[in-house]
């Protein structure tokens, strides 16, 4: 059967300005809809020639933990050798199709070597826009020159055009392999040392000197619709390491922080991928990078990855075809089904992959092959296992003997005491060994039970589906039956499960089926902005504090007058806490839309839910925010929520913070006077102030505390609100017959899931983003912004000593605040309303930011003048 190559398809497609349907990816995978456009962090680039080799090792380990990918420069491979490697590969793909097919991978081959294309697993699957050439380049016994092109001549033999070159092409590849082995040894050593292991540990775990170097030349032809297809779909590499040389056409994308980020092209740099084998061998400390490849419209993209693989692994890869998922065999158990002689399962400890072979004999072959691959990797013990030898424990009685001799005991009594000690210790050690064995047995039993449970569940599901004639397409495959795997990083699996993933802000909640499309689409047209997911790792270890010395002197005092160490603070200011109440601003967007539709009740209910939602972030927050300096400000421009916010500390005593927020169709403002008392065993916080919400149609809401219902103008309760302030809010409409019949109440709002990166501050995912300071933002902020406050920044970075020093320094400025107010100091962006205590936004902040005009903003975080040091 003749196979149509992608290069041929591409040449025919340009006339039509389209591509065949089998290449068009689902929308959730199309580059135009999923790639991130904007300011993104760059893939780490590491100079291997840096004289500070300890720093090089640290950077490699950090990049492998955080990214799973990095680039290396000054790696020792001559640039002209890389150029020749690229030249001969490029010339091969310029040959006629007939010539390239001479070294095509045979359809029935058990090897992946040879020229070929990425084919479909099933008729429903999609093709990738790439042709490739596979062949080994090391070690020599594994090389099959049958799959090395004879044309162009320079691929194997000395070409007249390359007479000045010292390399044959065979020599080019072999010379490249020699240099590449040196680079690989450096990488394996750095990665091993980064785990606290001997330098050779990971290389030995991956196959030692038997590691095979498999070269793959990828050719991605120009594509008339690069927005619809992919060169290679999202995947991680099965290798230990992948060392890749790209050409100048961009296309490699990495999935990080829930976004597809494009790798920057650096001439002559090598791109290093952490593969599955290293992730397994490091017990998950290093991450296999999830990546994909896009294509270009006007240029061909090429890449030369070399996969560093354990001996023989490619034989099993060739039998797998396109992967439907991935597992870590190293920590998995393989078990045959007792109810089906063709079925077997692989249990990882947390999930089970169920497979069905074509026959009973084929199942035996599969299980033997999987076990053989599993046995290739002796698991590196973790730190807890390294501390115990599990055998004879030697106990020293030297100190006991010395003490007994000082007491004047006889030699016979001393020996008897020593023996008693050894016997007791031996008995204790034996008990511990038994407990450890029982623990291991229990873990194995749990794994087997879990595997049997899922096996039984799938059997029941199978029978049920057969009875109803509802067999899934996957179960009808003859060769492999993929029954249950919900968490694999597979290109064909449901990788994009929802628009809001596990550590992404949750979007507006669908209140009920049949809701107006305008309400359901609220927020969907806001741009996506990539924000950080966790706080920086602490620079230094946090120290404890002596509580009693502070408690006894400060009981009953106003908390704003108590000098507390930064241990009691979270890395946010009260100004930022005000903005945190806007986390669920989509409720106000919905309220605006309901009002436009004339549904005043649903508008009021959504406003009430918003008023409560701000309390959800307080759960588990044991630390107090920083007390702002007089005149301190905080801005938040969140286009992904459709809002922008400005707050300012307008009074020191009493401590008052004023804020103003503009949304789409509404404005929100108010002031917060937080009364606080420190009672030794607890902190009492009493929020005081009025909050105002005004919609563009003129309707105004005000509140200072949350009520439990919505009343009409006659005082009649028309809807009831109930729920938990730290979880969710529901409503029932009085007179709703559906509720009278006992149906479920309607959900208004639900708290977002907590961050995966928890700290002692228990910040929400939204709160983690509030103090983020990117370089491009720092240049545009006024000197009064909370993000520039040094003690708060040091606390966030884990520089606790410096944070305390800065906090004490800034509190000297705080003590001048009352004098400043008495001398007529006035807020910059807010004005106190006549005859009241409320503050109104006077405008001008965003215009000043646009112009970069901050001349009226003082340097409130600078050094205290010497003439102000006394109070």
From TrEMBL:
<dbReference type="InterPro" id="IPR005123">
    <property type="entry name" value="Oxoglu/Fe-dep_dioxygenase_dom"/>
</dbReference>
<dbReference type="InterPro" id="IPR044861">
    <property type="entry name" value="IPNS-like_FE2OG_OXY"/>
</dbReference>
<keyword id="KW-0479">Metal-binding</keyword>
<dbReference type="GO" id="GO:0005829">
    <property type="term" value="C:cytosol"/>
</dbReference>
<feature type="domain" description="PH">
    <location>
        <begin position="344"/>
        <end position="375"/>
    </location>
</feature>
<dbReference type="Pfam" id="PF01237">
    <property type="entry name" value="Oxysterol_BP"/>
</dbReference>
<keyword id="KW-0560">Oxidoreductase</keyword>
<dbReference type="InterPro" id="IPR027443">
    <property type="entry name" value="IPNS-like_sf"/>
</dbReference>
<keyword id="KW-0175">Coiled coil</keyword>
<comment type="similarity">
    <text>Belongs to the iron/ascorbate-dependent oxidoreductase family.</text>
</comment>
<dbReference type="InterPro" id="IPR000648">
    <property type="entry name" value="Oxysterol-bd"/>
</dbReference>
<dbReference type="GO" id="GO:0006869">
    <property type="term" value="P:lipid transport"/>
</dbReference>
<keyword id="KW-0813">Transport</keyword>
<comment type="similarity">
    <text>Belongs to the OSBP family.</text>
</comment>
<dbReference type="GO" id="GO:0031418">
    <property type="term" value="F:L-ascorbic acid binding"/>
</dbReference>
<dbReference type="GO" id="GO:0046148">
    <property type="term" value="P:pigment biosynthetic process"/>
</dbReference>
<dbReference type="InterPro" id="IPR001849">
    <property type="entry name" value="PH_domain"/>
</dbReference>
<dbReference type="Pfam" id="PF14226">
    <property type="entry name" value="DIOX_N"/>
</dbReference>
<comment type="function">
    <text>May be involved in the transport of sterols.</text>
</comment>
<dbReference type="GO" id="GO:0046872">
    <property type="term" value="F:metal ion binding"/>
</dbReference>
<dbReference type="InterPro" id="IPR026992">
    <property type="entry name" value="DIOX_N"/>
</dbReference>
<feature type="domain" description="Fe2OG dioxygenase">
    <location>
        <begin position="210"/>
        <end position="310"/>
    </location>
</feature>
<dbReference type="InterPro" id="IPR037239">
    <property type="entry name" value="OSBP_sf"/>
</dbReference>
<dbReference type="GO" id="GO:0009813">
    <property type="term" value="P:flavonoid biosynthetic process"/>
</dbReference>
<feature type="coiled-coil region">
    <location>
        <begin position="439"/>
        <end position="466"/>
    </location>
</feature>
<keyword id="KW-0223">Dioxygenase</keyword>
<keyword id="KW-0847">Vitamin C</keyword>
<dbReference type="InterPro" id="IPR011993">
    <property type="entry name" value="PH-like_dom_sf"/>
</dbReference>
<keyword id="KW-0446">Lipid-binding</keyword>
<dbReference type="GO" id="GO:0016020">
    <property type="term" value="C:membrane"/>
</dbReference>
<keyword id="KW-0284">Flavonoid biosynthesis</keyword>
<dbReference type="GO" id="GO:0051213">
    <property type="term" value="F:dioxygenase activity"/>
</dbReference>
<keyword id="KW-0408">Iron</keyword>
<dbReference type="Pfam" id="PF03171">
    <property type="entry name" value="2OG-FeII_Oxy"/>
</dbReference>
<protein>
    <submittedName>
        <fullName>Uncharacterized protein</fullName>
    </submittedName>
</protein>
<dbReference type="GO" id="GO:0032934">
    <property type="term" value="F:sterol binding"/>
</dbReference>
<keyword id="KW-0445">Lipid transport</keyword>
């Amino acid at each position: 059967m003749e196979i149509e190559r992608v290069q041929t398809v591409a040449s025919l497609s340009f006339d039509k300005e389209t591509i065949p349907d089998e290449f068009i990816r689902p929308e959730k995978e199309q580059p135009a809809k999923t790639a991130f456009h904007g300011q993104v962090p760059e893939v780490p680039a590491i100079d291997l020639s840096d004289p500070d080799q300890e720093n090089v090792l640290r950077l490699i380990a950090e990049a492998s933990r955080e990214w799973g990918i990095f680039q290396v420069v000054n790696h020792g491979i001559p640039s002209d050798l890389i150029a020749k490697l690229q030249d001969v590969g490029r010339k091969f793909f310029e040959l006629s199709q007939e010539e390239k097919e001479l070294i095509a991978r045979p359809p029935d081959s058990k090897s992946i070597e040879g020229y070929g294309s990425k084919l479909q697993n099933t008729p429903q699957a999609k093709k990738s826009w790439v042709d490739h050439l596979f062949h080994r380049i090391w070690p020599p016994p594994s090389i099959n020159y049958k799959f090395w092109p004879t044309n162009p001549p320079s691929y194997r033999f000395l070409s007249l055009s390359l007479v000045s070159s010292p390399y044959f092409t065979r020599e080019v590849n072999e010379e490249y392999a020699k240099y590449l082995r040196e680079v690989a040894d450096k990488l394996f050593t750095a990665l091993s040392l980064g785990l606290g292991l001997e330098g050779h540990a990971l290389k030995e775990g991956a196959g030692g000197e038997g590691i095979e170097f498999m070269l793959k030349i990828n050719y991605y032809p120009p594509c008339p619709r690069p927005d619809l297809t992919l060169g290679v779909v999202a995947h991680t590499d099965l290798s230990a390491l992948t060392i890749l040389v790209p050409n100048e056409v961009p296309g490699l994308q990495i999935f990080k922080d829930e976004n597809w980020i494009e790798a920057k092209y650096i001439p002559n740099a090598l791109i290093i991928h952490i593969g599955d084998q290293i992730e397994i061998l490091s017990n998950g400390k290093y991450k296999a990078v999830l990546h994909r490849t896009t294509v270009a419209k006007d240029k061909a993209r090429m890449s030369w990855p070399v996969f560093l693989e354990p001996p023989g692994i490619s034989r099993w890869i060739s039998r797998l075809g396109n992967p439907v998922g991935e597992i870590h065999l190293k920590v998995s158990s393989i078990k045959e089904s007792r109810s089906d002689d063709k079925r077997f399962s692989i249990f990882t400890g947390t999930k089970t992959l169920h497979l069905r072979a074509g026959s009973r004999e084929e199942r035996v072959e599969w299980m033997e092959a999987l076990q053989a691959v599993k046995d290739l990797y002796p698991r590196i013990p973790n730190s807890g296992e390294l501390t115990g030898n599990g055998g004879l424990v030697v106990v020293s009685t030297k100190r006991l003997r010395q003490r007994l001799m000082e007491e004047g005991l006889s030699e016979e009594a001393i020996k008897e005491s020593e023996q008693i000690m050894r016997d007791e210790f031996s008995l204790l050690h034996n008990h511990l060994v038994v407990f450890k064995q029982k623990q291991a047995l229990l873990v194995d039993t749990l794994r087997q039970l879990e595997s049997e449970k899922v096996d039984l569940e799938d059997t029941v599901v199978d029978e049920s589906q057969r009875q109803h004639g509802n067999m899934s397409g996957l179960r009808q495959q003859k060769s492999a039956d993929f029954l249950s795997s919900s968490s694999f990083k597979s290109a064909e699996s449901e990788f994009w499960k929802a628009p809001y993933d596990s550590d992404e802000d949750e979007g507006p909640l669908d209140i009920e089926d049949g809701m107006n499309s305008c309400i359901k689409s609220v927020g969907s047209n806001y741009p996506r902005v990539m924000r950080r997911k966790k706080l920086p790792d602490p620079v230094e270890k946090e120290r404890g504090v002596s509580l009693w010395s502070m408690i006894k002197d400060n009981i009953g005092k106003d908390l704003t007058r108590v000098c507390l160490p930064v241990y009691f603070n979270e890395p946010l200011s009260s100004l930022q806490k005000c903005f945190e109440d806007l986390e669920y601003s989509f409720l106000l967007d919905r309220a605006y839309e309901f009002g436009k539709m004339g549904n005043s009740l649903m508008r009021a209910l959504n406003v009430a839910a918003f008023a409560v939602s701000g309390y959800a972030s307080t759960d588990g927050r044991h630390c107090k925010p920083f007390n702002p300096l007089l005149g301190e400000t905080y801005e938040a421009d969140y286009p992904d929520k459709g809002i922008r916010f400005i707050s300012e500390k307008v009074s020191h005593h009493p401590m008052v913070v004023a804020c103003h927020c503009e949304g789409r169709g509404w404005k929100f403002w108010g002031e917060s006077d937080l009364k606080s008392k420190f009672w030794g065993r607890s902190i009492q916080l009493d929020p005081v102030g009025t909050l105002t919400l005004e919609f563009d149609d003129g309707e105004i809401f005000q509140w200072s505390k949350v009520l439990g219902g919505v009343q009409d103008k006659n005082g009649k309760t028309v809807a009831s609100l109930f729920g938990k302030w730290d979880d969710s809010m529901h409503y029932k409409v009085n007179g709703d017959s559906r509720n009278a019949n006992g149906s479920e109440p309607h959900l208004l709002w639900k708290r977002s899931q907590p961050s995966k990166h928890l700290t002692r501050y228990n910040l929400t995912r939204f709160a983690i983003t509030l103090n983020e300071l990117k370089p491009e933002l720092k240049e545009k902020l006024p000197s009064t912004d909370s993000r520039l406050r040094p003690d708060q920044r040091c606390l966030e970075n884990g520089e606790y000593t410096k944070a305390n020093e800065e906090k004490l320094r800034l509190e000297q400025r705080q003590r001048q605040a009352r004098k400043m107010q008495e001398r007529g100091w006035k807020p910059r962006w807010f004005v106190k309303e006549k005859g009241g205590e409320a503050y109104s936004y006077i405008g001008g902040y965003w215009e000043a930011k646009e112009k970069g005009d901050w001349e009226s903003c003082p340097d409130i975080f600078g050094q205290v003048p010497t003439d102000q040091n006394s109070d």
